[in-house]
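yo, MAPEG family protein is done. seq:
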Amino acid sequence: MANNLFWPAVAMALLTCIVWFRLYVVRIPEMQRRRIHPQKVAQSAQRDTLFEDTRASDNFKNLFELPVLFYLGLFVAQSSGQAGTTVVFLAWAFVVLRWLHSLIQCTYNRVMHRFAVYSAGAVVLWLLWALLAYGLWR
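structure:
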């Protein structure tokens, strides 16, 4: 059962890689087309004002916010022997919701759709952590 816990981590790493790749597929042509010198976007404030399409960049940053707690949760579950069916289910639920969130943000980017999926993913993550904390406590 413990090995099942690693596949959600692999799926999240794959998502991060895909968004990273998308970022460069969008960013480099925009820089070439609009003749943006790389030094002009050396700081995030500059990037935010110069680039027209920041969806992939915004999503890539987001993949290092709540997902960090997800990865840590998987480590805690594995280390404490809590990699049971419920934990694996919650891990996969989080992954599916994060993939959906990225799909929305990197394509049509409707904020309320993205927010609903983001919120659902956060609730799943907090449930995962509550379950882990309970398991550690008892």
